[in-house]
Structure formats: C-alpha cells, structure tokens
C-alpha cells in the first residue's frame, strides 16, 4: 500500500494534570495539599501523563485508497480512535485502533482508514484520539490532503432478466443490503489475521472492470440507472479456482440476490475482503482460512453478465481499491521499526 508522503513527529501531549498551581505565590491550604499528596506521589503518574507520543501519518492520500496511522510508545495507551473530518468538523470516516508488535518487545498501535472514492479532493483533518491506561484522554490533529484521481466510465446493457433483477422491488434484497453494510462496518480489535501482503485471488484473470468505475446501466425498457463499481472484476472461465487473498476468518458464506454466491473474509480489525458471483462455495461461515486457500470457483451467479469474480475490500465500511493491498505488506513492520530506531537515536543524541 502506498502512503504517498509519510511524516513522523514527536508530540509532547498537553498535560492533563498539571498538579497544584499557586496564584500570586499564595500558600496552598494544608488540608488541600494533604488531599493531593497521594495523587502527586503515585508511581509513574506524572511520567505517564507527560510522555511524548510519536505519531506517523501520511500527508497526502488519493481518494479511494486506505491509509495507515501508527502510534507509539504503546505501553500507556489503552485505546486508539481515528477520524477523517472536513473543515467544518463533519466526519467523513472513522475507525478504531489495534495493538500489534513490530518485534517481540516493541508494541505499536495501528489504525486503518478508508478514503471514499467519491470524496472531493482538498484539505481535511485527521483526528486521533488516545485513551490512556490511567483513564486520561488526548486528541491530536493532522492536516491530510486528499488528492484527485480519475475513474473510468462505462455503459452496461442489461437483458430483461437482469433488468428485472435490478428494477423489481424486493424486500429481501433491501434486507440483504442492510445486513452486509452492518457486517463490513464491524470492528473487532482482536481480529488480526493478515498484516502482510495480499494476493490477487484469481490466477491469469483479465480485468474486465476497475475499481471506482462510474457505470450507467441501460435497462431493457429504455430506462437507465447510475452506480459506482466498488471492486475489481476478474474475468475467467466458470469453475476457475478462487483463492483467499489473505488469511482471515470467514464472516459470511451464502447466496445473495444481487451478488450470488458470496464470501466475506475478515482480515484485520475493520478490514474485510468480499468475493461475489461465485459458482461454488468451498468454505462456510466461521472457518479460518490461510492466504491462498481455495474458497470457491468463478461463476456468474446473481447480477452478472458473464463469468467473473467481483473482488472488493472494505475498510471501516468504506470501499477501497483492492490493488492497494497487493505488492507490499499492509502494515510495514520493518518501516515502523526503522522509524522507532531513528526516533530513539535522535533522543539519545539530544542527551
């Protein structure tokens, strides 16, 4: 995944507890001082509150791709939350954070956010909320520039059967859509299965449609409808094996009206891989799968005009480009470790 421009800064949090203040040199009443002594003398209390935070985020990110937030030291942090907001404070997307280790003794907090492909380019703010083990909280902010990205346009002619499938009001279809939206919006901070790179799930496939394509469906009755393609279509003959692009837990495996035989795999907290239009299911809900394990075969079930796999990723419920997950580790632990080493070396040099 390309972070474009990465930035790291050591931040000294604003003290959440500044202890006793004296006004005009006046003495603090003895009773008040006695009440405060246990708090001031608590081991590690002041140190934890004044400990600097190292926060790494991108400065620029394309719309339609995920980006990472890394935070350390992690020992005093209990929870992490992130949100991308507009200048007026309106939230674009939000996520939680989870604790990982770049080495056995180096814990780091990680959060992944998805940038919608429909988001207007421009300047936004990243808000990072930290909850400490002593119950205190701190909020950090960063400027994030969302850069432009062009998407292809295409028209798709539907026969009568496909037109009826899209146009006919069906409460089951609405219910299935709601259930899928709720499923891929879940966040389980212990669901850490695949922090490394991912693979393309169909070998030697032809890309027949790209992520973010702006589509116009031409119905058999002359009407039309617009939509956005949230994944990559991999065209291949019916029966071609489909492999899990990464390790994870099967969160869904069943037939749906629009997407046909469908598999959803939870790869990381808030990160789900979706596989549509399968001809056969080789896994069931609750299975743990490894990267490269066969989960089904290519088909054209549901709303499909030819045999292909629709391959999709959701991060915090936001559809993002699957290509961003291929070619390099999703969480680059080596890079994080090098950044920590650079920070520690600079601190040692300063004395």
Structure characterization notes:
With 351 residues, the chain is of the alpha+beta class. The protein has two domains: 5-149, Sandwich (Immunoglobulin-like); 153-320, Distorted Sandwich (Glucose Permease (Domain IIA)), CATH 2.70.70. The protein has helices spanning 30-41, 45-50, 160-167, 171-184, 333-350, and strands at 5-11, 53-62, 66-72, 77-85, 91-96, 98-103, 106-114, 122-132, 137-147, 153-157, 206-209, 214-218, 224-228, 232-235, 241-243, 248-256, 260-268, 271-281, 288-289, 294-298, 308-315, 318-320. The strands form three sheets. Strands 11, 14, 15, 16, 17, 18, 19, 20, 21 and 22 form a ten-stranded antiparallel beta sheet that branches. A hairpin with a 2-residue loop joins strand 17 and strand 18 (271-281). Residues 1-50 have low confidence and may be disordered.
Feature tags:
351 residues, alpha+beta, Immunoglobulin-like, Glucose Permease (Domain IIA), 10-stranded antiparallel beta sheet, 5 helices, globular
Topology, pairings included?
Elements: E1 5-11, H1 30-41, H2 45-50, E2 53-62, E3 66-72, E4 77-85, E5 91-96, E6 98-103, E7 106-114, E8 122-132, E9 137-147, E10 153-157, H3 160-167, H4 171-184, E11 206-209, E12 214-218, E13 224-228, E14 232-235, E15 241-243, E16 248-256, E17 260-268, E18 271-281, E19 288-289, E20 294-298, E21 308-315, E22 318-320, H5 333-350
Parallel strand pairs: 2-9, 10-12
Antiparallel strand pairs: 1-2, 2-3, 3-7, 4-5, 4-8, 6-7, 8-9, 11-14, 12-13, 14-21, 15-20, 16-17, 16-19, 17-18, 18-20, 18-21, 21-22
């Amino acid at each position: 995944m390309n972070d474009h421009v990465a930035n790291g800064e050591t931040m000294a949090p604003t003290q959440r507890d500044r202890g006793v203040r004296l006004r005009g040199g006046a003495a603090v009443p003895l009773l008040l001082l006695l009440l405060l002594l246990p708090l001031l003398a608590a081991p590690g209390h002041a140190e934890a509150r004044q400990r600097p935070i190292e926060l790494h985020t991108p400065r620029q990110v394309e719309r339609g791709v995920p980006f990472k937030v890394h935070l350390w030291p992690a020992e005093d942090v209990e929870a992490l939350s992130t949100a991308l907001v507009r200048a007026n404070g309106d939230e674009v997307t939000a996520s939680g954070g989870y604790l990982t280790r770049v080495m056995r003794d180096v814990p780091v907090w990680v959060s992944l956010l998805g940038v919608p492909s429909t988001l207007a380019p421009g300047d936004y703010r990243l808000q990072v909320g930290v909850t400490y083990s002593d119950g205190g909280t701190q909020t950090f902010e960063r400027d994030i520039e969302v850069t432009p990205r062009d998407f292809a346009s295409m028209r798709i002619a539907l026969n009568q059967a496909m037109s009826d499938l899209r146009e006919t009001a069906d409460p089951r279809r609405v219910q299935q859509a709601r259930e899928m939206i709720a499923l891929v919006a879940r966040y389980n901070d212990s669901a850490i299965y695949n922090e490394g790179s991912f693979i393309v799930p169909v070998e030697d496939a032809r890309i027949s449609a790209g992520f973010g394509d702006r589509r116009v469906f031409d119905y058999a009755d002359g009407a039309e409808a617009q939509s956005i393609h949230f994944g990559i279509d991999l065209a291949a003959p019916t029966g071609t094996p489909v492999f899990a692009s990464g390790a994870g837990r099967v969160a869904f495996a069943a037939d749906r009206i629009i997407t046909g035989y469908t598999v959803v795999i939870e790869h990381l907290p808030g990160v789900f891989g979706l596989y549509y239009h399968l001809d056969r299911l080789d896994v069931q809900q609750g299975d743990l799968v490894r990267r490269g394990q066969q989960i089904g075969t290519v088909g054209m079930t549901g709303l499909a005009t030819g045999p292909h796999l629709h391959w999709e990723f959701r991060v915090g419920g936001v559809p993002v480009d699957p290509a961003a997950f291929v070619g390099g580790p999703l969480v680059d632990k080596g890079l994080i470790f090098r950044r920590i080493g650079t920070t520690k070396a600079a601190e040692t040099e300063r004395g």
